Amino acid sequence: MSVIYLLISISIIIAIGFFIAFIRAVKTGQYDDDYTPSVRMLFDDELKVENPKPEQITEEKQN
Amino acid sequence: MDTQNCFHCGLDIIKAEEIIFDDKSFCCNGCKTVYEIFSVNDLTCYYDFEKAPGATPLDIKGKYDFLENESIVAKLLEFEEEATAIVSLSIPHIHCSSCIWILENLQRLQKGISTSQVNFPEKKVRITYNPQTVSLSKIVYLLSSIGYEPYISLENYETGKKNIDRSLTYKLGVAFFCFGNIMLLSFPEYFEVNEFWLDTYKPFFRWLIFILSLPAFLYSASDYYVSAYKSIRSKMLNIDIPIALGIIVMFVRSTTDIVFNYGSGFFDSLTGLIFFMLLGKMFQIKTYSFLSFERDFKSYFPIAITRINSDGSEESVPVYDIQKGDRLLIRNQELIPVDGILISEKAAIDYSFVTGEAVPITKNSGDKVFAGGKQIGKVVEMEVLYSVSQSYLTQLWSNDVFQKAVTQRHKSITDTISRYFTPVLLLIAFASFAYWIVIDTNTAFNVFTAILIVACPCALALTAPFTMGNVLRILGKQKFYLKNALVIEQLAKVDTIVFDKTGTITTNKKAKISYEGESLSSENLTNIKTVLRASNHPLSRMLYDFLPEMKSVTITDFEEITGKGIRAKIQGIEVVIGSAAFAGSPDENTVLQTAVHITINNEYYGKYIFNNQYRVGLESLFKSLKQNYQIKVLSGDNEGEKFSLEMLLPVGTELIFNQKPEQKLEFIKQLQEQGRNVMMVGDGLNDAGALAQSNVGISISENVNVFSPACDGILEANEFQKLHYFLKLSKKAMTTIRMSFGMSLLYNIIGLSFAITGHLQPLVAAIIMPLSTITIVSFVTIMSNFYAKKLR
After folding, report:
1. How many CB atoms lie within 10 A of CB B771?
2. Is B421 a member of any domain?
3. B483 vs A57, B121, B320, CA distance in Å?
4. Which of B391, B292, B320 is nearest to B66 (CA)?
């Protein structure tokens, strides 16, 4: 039954891993603006579906 | 009439000016150009997300020339290296998803921009670009040309990097982490089964829980200890004292419990308590990041101004570098940053921002001009008398009375309750301790700590944050933005309301215009309208908008004399529009009236009289407010409108005219000395002092993105008639809080009955605490939503 020490330790370590991920997310500012990303996410899709060409055109222009 | 709207900006299109391009109609050339830019770059997606999202680009030639000055640019940038620079620009026009889309695709419009990211709540765009390929001024001009003109003011100067305080988020995260894991690990203990394996591992689980509780106890709850310590030192018993006491006692008791193996301790309740209370704190902090309630003159002032050097060359210099004796060039719509003497012959200066008076004042060569005025019309030159820090406006602002007192002048409702709560709690704790110590010392200590633990006023402390936070959101949705939750409490206490006249109960935009004199033929009307069209004077613009739609005719000769009027020729007919003297009016110009006189071919016709237009719903609002509040109206204007105001407002409303900013402030102060709770409703800078002095200062804004003086709340002008509803809602919020206080005290009594009898098990505490929290939170949310609906 002493395997419980191992299991609990692993679970705590995993939890700490997630906790560190959370701290990093806050630090990089992911929680500062909780509105814009929700809108931005929708644009990417529409761009790809509707206008696959324009991006190539701009690239050509830049070249 | 054709009611077509512009494809780009959504404004009505005047038939004669309609521009059709690409099968789409536009109201003006500017809008068409923006569309062209977008269509050439395949960015017409812009119009798919939102209908008519754009703004007409304004002509800003020369306005941002200061961005060529490298030392100024350096102050604006967040980060700068050889090939990368990052700048954050505030763009008030950001309002919809199309805005986000176009601004995040800037790199397709301008080479050199690598990424741009919009922060919608703050209305800011953060642009990363290569300064070797593109300059900041080029980016700013690009943004302006597509209708997103950034707002750059003195406030941006030397901002550098702002430190965002994220400590509450961290604390909440830590508390949640500890709470969750401890809950999981204490689960076996809840069942109290005498099973062999569970008993074997008990110490391991308990010590693990102890370790996990440390971060929550030491870090997450630290604010409560600090606040409790501060309130003890200032001898004010606030709610944080019993909270801090409860937390510390809980921790000490639980630690002793596991050290001496008495039981599992209350670590689960302890961390849960901390978590829920921090959650309440988080909920209460609802900020409108795109608004600022602490503005001072800096956010109005330009960052740089054009200086004319002795050799005649023009140069952009930061306003802080302006010296006495410098010669400055002020363009149309530019703000005068310092006091000085006018060199140019004539200038029309709009002091609306200082005095609230909408009609510009004419200054002649040699007159003194004060900082804060806006030049309207052509470019003028002035000589500096004082530097920025010594100018009248800056001095006025630095005046102590204009600074909002930092000390809180009132006790919040929670603090009032806790003044009684804390002593009563300590009394009960010591009384039961005294009772039990005769019977059994061990139980006595247990009971004493259990009382402090269970009475820890978690639900009590959460009531106000959740109610106020919710009401704050309800008000925000209706365009009434409050600085923080405490303002709601203040609103509920108000018994006197003082209104400013100009811009507050009257609108700045529309004036009621009436005509007096000989009737004008439609041909003459056409001529007048055409002439007015060419003029930029605010009165001309108002009159132009007022006159019916006409076809336009060609003007052959046009001359605008600043401060006097316009003289123009249309097909040989001479039209003179302007002041009484200029247009040759026979009657003396009545001082108390704003009027424009008309003379055509040397024949005097009559005058258009401008009366202030009162806000919609003003009469009914005042009528309903009058029942519960004392109403007073202050005005910086003359008594010209006394009569019409008296007709409009309910009998007994006090009207006071000719009030200077300092007098307004003094007036509020006197009312407060009479023991009144005053709410000041104002707009411009002229009310800033009064807004700061009053218990609640509400600023009325035609457009919340445009800047308003420091205040406690910003109300969008269109919602003005709802003011009484907002006041009623704030009162109901306080009722809700009182009801919920009753409920949470009930929970405390139940908990105490367990504690005093010495039966508080960790499991009981673990049930009571979240149960009370959840019921209280749902109760206040439902009640405040209910009142918000019912009152409407």
Report:
1. 12
2. no
3. 48, 15, 30
4. B320
The single-letter DSSP state of residue B504 is I
How many Cβ pairs closer than 8 A exist between chain A and B?
72
**Chain A nearest CA to B224, separation (Å):** 22
Q: State residue B209's pLDDT score.
A: 92
A39, B271, B690, B746 from B752: Cα distances, Å = 50, 20, 48, 10
Pairing of strands B304-308, B124-129: unpaired
Taking only Cα atoms into account, the Rg of chain B, rounded to an integer number of angstroms, comes to 33
> B61 vs B110, which has greater pLDDT?
B110
How far is residue B148's CA from residue B103's CA, in Å, rounded to a whole number? Answer: 9
Q: Do residues B349 and B490 both lie within one domain? A: no
User: Which residue range forms the structural domain that includes residue B634?
Assistant: 479-507+615-731
Angle at B289 between CA B285 and CA B291, to 5 degrees: 115
Most B CBs within 10 A among A43, A48, A57, hence the mutation to make, goes to A43
Question: According to the model, what pLDDT value does residue B164 have?
Answer: 67
Identify the closest residue of chain B to A48 by CA–CA distance.
Answer: B45
B62-82: pLDDT as tens digits: 667 777 777 778 777 878 888
ipTM above threshold 0.90: no
Write the CATH number for B676.
Answer: 3.40.50.1000
Give percent of chain B above pLDDT 70. Answer: 86
Q: Which two tokens stand for residue B174?
A: 């830590």
CATH of the domain at B352: 2.70.150.10
Shortest alpha-carbon distance between residue A36 and chain B (Å): 5
Q: Read off the pLDDT of residues B662-673 as tens digits, 9 standing for 90 and up.
A: 788 888 888 888
The winner for highest mean pLDDT among B280-289, B290-299, B465-474 is: B465-474
Do the domain assignments include residue B26? Answer: no
The Cα–Cα gap between B564 and B584 comes to 11
The strand pair at B713-716 and B696-701 is best described as parallel
CB B125 within 8 A of CB B136: no
Average the pLDDT over B572-582 and give the result: 80
**What's the pTM value of the predicted model, to 2 decimals?**
0.73
Any domain includes B590: no
Which residues is B678 bridged to in the sheet?
Answer: B496
Residue where one domain finishes, among candidates B364, B396, B428: B396
